Amino acid sequence: MKRAILMLSLISGLIFHVALANAGNPEREKCTCDTQKESEPINGAWVKNATACWSTEIKDRQWCDITVQSLEGSQTQAAIVIQLLDRKDDAAALNAKLQEQFQQFMSTAADASLPLDLNLARDVVPSLLKANEDLIMQCVNALQDKMSGKGGAVLEGEGGLKCSVGESSGWLRIEFRVGDVWLAYMIAPPSS
Predict the structure, then answer these.
(1) Taking the mean position of all CA atoms in its chain, how far away is CA 90?
(2) Could you tell me if residue 177 is inside a domain?
(3) Cα–Cα distance for residue pair 46/64, rounded to 1 Å
(4) Number of domains composing the chain
(5) pLDDT at 5
(6) Would residue 4 count as lying in a domain?
(7) pLDDT at residue 60 in the model
């Protein structure tokens, strides 16, 4: 009996260890904010069950905040990704969808005590989205390519806008510089 319990304990420990090893580390493009880009987030935050979010980061102060837009199991994230992909070849429609996501974030940011100049963000983010419409179309097309098994993408545009699709995770990440603050929109690919 003791031997069976010991074997069961060893097998459980091994399964747990293998599961942790295969889980992988959270990557920068997921719902994380880490002011010191390391292989693992060590100086920030990570929302493990989030599938769409906004992060506000002040790197000089090593400060960040994450606003969750959808959680695992929610249909919201899949609907947003489908809507982005449906608009991937229409710059104006894609811009409008991203503007809608930004406005949803701003409605919650107004209630929070974020060190983000909301008026500046209302000016900067829409203008960066408009100025980088072609780059964002490329990035959303890279999201679809990644869902088909191709590699990720890292693109940089006007005004410091950055757009990427994670090589291993497939997450879409769009970053905006708003004064001293970096604002990032992150969304997971739909579950397969």
Answers:
(1) 22
(2) yes
(3) 10
(4) 1
(5) 39
(6) no
(7) 82
- What is the DSSP track for 39-85? SS--SEEE-TTEEEEEEEEETTTTEEEEEEEEETT-HHHHHHHHHHH
Please indicate, yes or no, if residue 123 is contained in any of the structural domains.
yes
In a domain, 91, yes or no: yes
* The token pair that represents 79 in the structure block: 């609907």
Domain that holds residue 45: 26-187
CB atoms within 10 A of CB 92: 10
Question: What is the reported pLDDT for 96?
Answer: 96
How far apart are the C-alpha atoms of 52 and 64, rounded to whole Å? 16
Distances (CA, A) of 28 to 43, 137, 170: 12, 21, 11
Q: How far apart are CA 11 and CA 39, in angstroms?
A: 29
Q: What angle do CA 72, 95, 113 make, to 5 degrees?
A: 60
Kindly report the pTM of this predicted structure. 0.81
Q: What is the DSSP letter of 36?
A: S
CA 119 to chain centre: 23
In whole angstroms, give the CA distance from residue 79 to residue 187: 11
Q: Which residues of the chain have pLDDT under 50?
A: 1-26
Rg (C-alpha) for the chain, rounded Å, is 19
